[in-house]
Design a protein that fits this description.
Layout lengths: L13 E3 L2 E3 L3 E3 L11 H13 L4 E8 L12 E2 L6 H12 L4 E7 L15 E2 L3 E2 L7 E4 L2 H20 L4 E6 L5 H6 L14 H19 L4 E9 L13 H8 L5 E6 L2 H4 L13 H4 L10 E3 L6 H9 L5 E4 L1 H5 L3 H6 L14 H7 L33 E5 L3 H13 L2 E5 L8 H5 L10 H10 L5 E4 L6 H7 L3 E4 L3 E3 L20 E2 L1 H5 L8 E6 L4 H12 L3 E6 L14 H10 L3 E4 L1 E7 L2 E6 L5 E5 L2 E5 L2 E3 L2 H7 L2 H6 L4 E4 L9 H14 L19
Parallel strand pairs: 3-4, 3-14, 4-5, 4-6, 6-10, 7-9, 10-11, 11-12, 12-13, 13-14, 15-16, 15-18, 16-17, 18-29, 20-27, 21-22, 21-27, 22-23
Antiparallel strand pairs: 1-2, 8-9, 19-28, 24-25, 25-26
Helix pairs in contact: 1-2, 3-5, 5-6, 13-15, 13-22, 18-19
The protein binds adenosine-5'-diphosphate and iron/sulfur cluster.
């Protein structure tokens, strides 16, 4: 099949040193929570990207030696030859679909507390490790440096033996020894590896050259380099030294993989970097300084933006981590002229949270991500229907939409009834809050496909009650009726309703999203939820001119957003908008004109003036329909209803990712008698 212009440009092969990428789609290294512990899951996930058309598929960072290990994070390992077979699974899975396999070798230096190996961390100069461990790294002496170079060379040889086509040296995200040597703030050496820029780049030059010597006959050598740390004069920057660094190394690697640092900037969420290609202003100069191909990222999901990058000489290869997670088949869909079927990344970083929490990667948009091996799920294929039965899905939020879509893909005839005038549920409502517009993509993708499916009927403005459901008599009913934020303050911290709530106007996130806002004045947002919503609502109210205080019983603001790389940015933004932040305080009582707060440690109280209170605490499942229907099994069977189940927030309120997942799971398990015998395969330690 020939690809239509202008997108044919994206399917041109690109020569990278001794290897050739079959097209310009390049899955850059990304962490995933499988790593060295779950190689089968890892191989199946990477293989899926190759099947979906990514011409190059890379590993996550792969530790080259036990002096660099960041347990309990589960990264790759290539410490010795015993690691090779697990990597073989990965390269075989990638090669099976004609893609190239890349490996990102890493030595984390200052960033590696070595909690398992218990070997002293190493760095250019002695300093505390950059985790919170009470531990310091020692300065590397010249013997350490010789060893460090040898470990890279040996790891590269093992990578070649494992079948990799591209071997990386890594100086990005502030996470690697090579980068630490370049950073003045981490390198105070007085020998030939410190001082002048040339000296600070020496180790990188040696490592890239030695990897080339070792494996360059058949493997390309890539260099991943952060061109800007967004720290101004404190860090490496385009305005400062990184142009010179690129100049010094220009033709040495076979491929430049360039980005901004740290990880929170490179993988910025859509809330903080809404525009596709947001790294261009930093990375664009690199191509003018080297004849070697350049790959870069920017949450690219639109083929026009990709073509523009190549045409304008910004990038040769379109790098993607998150867009390849949200849609492993993105390249294939462009190739096959199915652009409308692309499942666009929403930039929420739920994928990152999996890595942070040391569990297999998950994704809001792609519920099959991380489930390729253990459940055998495929992002584009699902088992055909097991009967000609019809199904009714009540509620068109993320969970109902996903369930209806997958049932429809299986070939079931599905009726989707939504009470309001639009599909999307919370993905639509939340998309109207500051910075969250891309959340609507959860709805857009599903709604777009559902509307093309012959077997699916959608009814808007159709709030169903139990009588109408019984009257319709669909044999199978899925209730995706969502949840509602509590108005009484109960949640994690308070197990009984707050006292005195009648004394102040009280709002919930549902009110705010419905456009019902406090009249102005002093508003307290009480956040006992700890994810993004409390902070977003505080931001919205500050934008409308309220004098906002965010109170939380947690130790810090929007605590869970640490796992999505957003917390620092959220706090900065709230402070910039003059939101007062009060942590470790609970509401003891609501007073006329204010709140009595209590310290969560000592119980000491203080009063805070307020004209209105927004409670972001917990949600109640909207399961009244379920309770009334399931209470009358005789009426159900008389109506011909064989199965009735709750999905999404109606079952267990959680993230949008969770609701999509539960909708998908229900559709996968539908009419499968054995769904609960072996929930999923497990990678188990074998006792030899
Ligand atoms: P989830 O995240 O689980 O998908 P949402 O709250 O986002 O849940 O979506 C629930 C959707 O269900 C909303 O769009 C809401 O309007 C709709 N809904 C709730 N109750 C009914 C009902 N009885 N009949 C039809 N639609 C309903
Ligand atoms: Fe994108 Fe969110 Fe999926 Fe990550 S979890 S790939 S940010 S949609």
């Amino acid at each position: 099949m020939t690809v239509k212009p202008p997108y044919d440009l994206l399917f041109e092969p690109v020569r990278i040193g001794p290897v050739t990428a079959p097209n310009r789609f390049f899955q850059v290294p990304h962490c995933n929570g499988f790593g060295h512990l779950r190689p089968r899951g890892l191989a199946a996930m990477r293989g899926m990207k190759a099947e979906g058309g990514w011409g190059v598929v890379c590993t996550e960072e792969v530790e080259i030696h036990p002096t660099s290990e960041i347990s309990p994070a589960i990264e790759g390992r290539i410490w010795d030859d015993r690691d090779i077979p697990a990597h073989r699974l990965v390269t075989d899975a990638i090669h099976a679909h004609g893609a190239l396999a890349g490996i990102e070798l890493v030595h984390n230096g200052l960033h590696a507390p070595n909690r398992i190996s218990r070997l002293p961390p190493m760095a250019p100069s002695a300093a505390p490790v950059d985790s919170s461990d009470p531990l310091q790294a020692r300065a590397m002496d010249l013997t350490d440096i010789r060893n460090f170079r040898r470990w890279h060379r040996e790891a590269a040889l093992r990578a070649k033996a494992a079948g990799y086509d591209i071997v990386y040296a890594y100086a990005a995200h502030g996470m690697s020894t090579l980068m630490h040597f370049m950073q003045l703030r981490h390198n105070q050496r007085c020998d030939e590896y410190g001082g002048s820029l040339e000296n600070r780049v020496r180790l990188t030059r040696e490592v890239i050259s030695e990897i080339k010597d070792a494996v360059g006959d058949s493997c390309a050598v890539a260099f991943r380099f952060a061109v800007d740390e967004l720290l101004g004069e404190e860090g490496l920057s385009v305005e400062g030294e990184t142009r010179d660094i690129v100049g010094l190394l220009a033709e040495l690697p076979d491929l430049w993989d360039v980005n901004v640092s740290g990880w929170a900037n490179d993988s910025a969420t859509a809330r903080f970097e809404p525009v596709e290609g947001y790294q261009e202003s930093y990375t664009a100069f690199v191509k003018s300084m080297t004849s070697k191909p350049v790959v870069g990222v920017g949450r690219f999901t639109s083929p026009d933006a990709m073509v523009s990058q190549v045409r304008r000489g910004v990038l040769d290869l379109i790098g993607a981590a998150r867009p390849s997670i949200a849609d492993p088949f993105l390249p294939a869909k462009i190739r096959d002229d199915r652009i409308e079927a692309i499942r666009e990344c929403i930039g929420c970083n739920i994928c990152v949270s999996g890595d942070y929490l040391n569990v297999p990667i998950r994704c809001t948009q792609n519920p099959t991500m991380g489930e390729e091996w253990r459940r055998g799920w495929h992002p584009e294929k699902i088992a055909p229907k097991a009967s000609d039965d019809r199904a009714l899905v009540v509620g068109g939020g993320p969970s109902g939409l996903e369930c209806a879509l997958q049932l429809g893909q299986r070939g079931y005839r599905v009726t989707l009834a939504e009470g309001s005038s639009a599909l999307g549920g919370r993905s639509l409502l939340e998309s109207r809050l500051p910075g969250l517009s891309s959340t609507a993509r959860v709805k857009d993708y599903r709604e777009g496909l559902l509307k093309t499916m012959a077997g699916v009927e959608i009814y808007l403005e159709s709030p169903l009650d139990s009588d109408s459901i019984l009257e319709f008599g669909f044999p199978h009913v899925f209730l995706a009726t969502g949840s509602a934020w509590r108005r009484d303050g109960t949640g994690r911290e308070n197990h009984r309703p707050l006292r005195g709530l009648e004394r102040l106007p009280v709002f919930t996130p549902d009110d705010i999203m419905a456009g019902k806002l406090p009249a102005g004045g002093r508003v307290t947002v009480f956040d006992d939820d700890h994810y993004y919503l409390g902070g977003v609502i505080a931001e919205k109210l500050a934008d409308t001119g309220c004098d906002v205080t965010l109170v939380t019983p947690a130790l810090t603001v929007s605590a869970w957003t640490d796992f999505t790389l957003e917390q620092d940015k959220i706090i900065t933004r709230l402070l910039e908008k003059n939101v007062e932040l009060t942590v470790r305080r609970n509401i003891a009582e609501v007073l006329p004109g204010g709140l009595r707060l209590a310290c969560t440690h000592t119980g000491r109280t203080e009063d805070l003036e307020a004209d209105a209170l927004v409670l972001v605490t917990a949600r109640d499942a909207n399961d009244a329909l379920y309770r009334s229907l399931s209470a009358e099994p005789d009426r159900l069977s008389a109506a011909g209803i064989q199965s009735l189940q709750r999905i999404g927030d109606c079952l267990a309120p959680g993230t949008i990712a969770n609701a999509v997942y539960l909708g998908h799971l229900a559709a996968q398990n539908f009419q499968d008698e054995d769904w609960d015998t072996a929930l999923f395969r497990r990678e188990m330690t074998a006792l030899a």
